[in-house]
Specification:
The protein is of the alpha/beta class. The longest helix has 29 residues. Helices cover 33% and strands 26% of the residues. Helix 3 packs parallel to helix 4. The chain has one domain: 4-Layer Sandwich (Metallo-beta-lactamase, Chain A), CATH 3.60.15. 43% of the residues are buried. The radius of gyration is 21 Å and the shape is globular.
Length: 285
């Protein structure tokens, strides 16, 4: 006790020092000069985490398993256990299952999805968690806008109309995310038939600085006509190392090269970090 009394002053100084470090760490983590888009390395799947200047956080798809939790821990402050919105492009396991893990462990304000019930067990679990946690659920439709404030918003391009009789790829949620003068085309597993539809209906509205390449670089996606209208400066391929599908396909890489896009791949580059100040984009990986 005598030792404790003698050193009590130093103990309190140490505690105050630790608290100061924590406060400044929080200030540093929460202070952003613009937008950060993290294309997370989750193996053979998709997951994109967006953090806006005003603190809004959105996770688009979650990959196939718990890997997304580790990746979120690398790009979020350790004390942050909330995400404003989860967006599910379509209910396939390599996009959905990681979101279920996030839904179980984080406070989530809203879920945006096509609301296509596949009847699969993982989708039932997803629906049950949304209901149990009383989370706002939005069934996205083309023409809607999700506004995050501070000049950041999602324009929903697909799906169009009812999705009940469609396959998950036909009912794909596709969006164009805009921050200031910069834009990101977020395609999920969109295939060429839907790309052609967007070329026909949207045309000049497709131009984007960054393209999340469709379907992990499969040759069913990223058609020349679609690339021509998007005309991306950067292309990001979310894909697993040595995957059994042969993604990304050589012809897709060749197409992207012909259009002059700088290509980044999560199997080779890990998580791809893209920053925007609303005027220009920079990439760090």
């Amino acid at each position: 006790m005598a030792f404790l009394r003698k050193n009590l002053e130093y103990f309190f100084i140490f505690v105050l020092f630790v608290c100061a470090i924590f406060v400044w760490y929080a200030v540093f983590c929460e202070s952003r000069s613009g937008l950060e888009a993290d294309f997370l390395d989750v193996g053979q799947g998709d997951s994109v985490f967006l953090q806006a200047k005003n603190g809004s956080q959105v996770l688009l798809d979650g990959g196939p398993d718990k890997t997304v939790l580790r990746r979120l821990g690398e790009v979020m402050p350790f004390y942050d256990r909330s995400i404003d919105a989860l967006i599910l492009s379509h209910p396939h396991a390599d996009h959905l299952d990681g979101l279920i893990e996030v839904l179980e462990r984080y406070e989530v304000e809203m879920v945006i999805e096509p609301c296509l019930d596949t009847g699969e067990a993982d989708y039932k679990e997803w629906e049950n968690l949304i209901e149990e946690k009383n989370i706002k659920r939005i069934c996205a439709k083309a023409g809607e806008r999700v506004n995050l404030g501070d000049g950041a918003y999602f324009d929903i391009l697909l799906p169009v109309g009812g999705v009940e009789e469609r396959s998950p790829h036909e009912a794909m949620l596709v969006s164009r995310f805009v921050y200031g003068k910069n834009s990101f085309m977020l395609t999920g597993d969109m295939e060429s038939s839907l790309e052609n539809y967007l070329v026909y209906t949207e045309r000049g509205n497709l131009k984007s600085d960054v393209l999340k390449v469709g379907h992990h670089g499969s040759d069913t996606s990223t058609s020349e006509s679609f690339l021509g209208y998007v005309s991306p400066e950067y292309a990001v391929i979310s894909v697993g190392e040595d995957n059994k599908f042969g993604h990304p396909r050589r012809e897709v890489l060749d197409r992207l090269n012909r259009f002059g896009a700088s290509i980044f791949r999560t199997d080779e580059d890990g998580t791809v970090k893209i920053f925007s100040d609303g005027e220009k984009i920079s990439v760090k990986n």
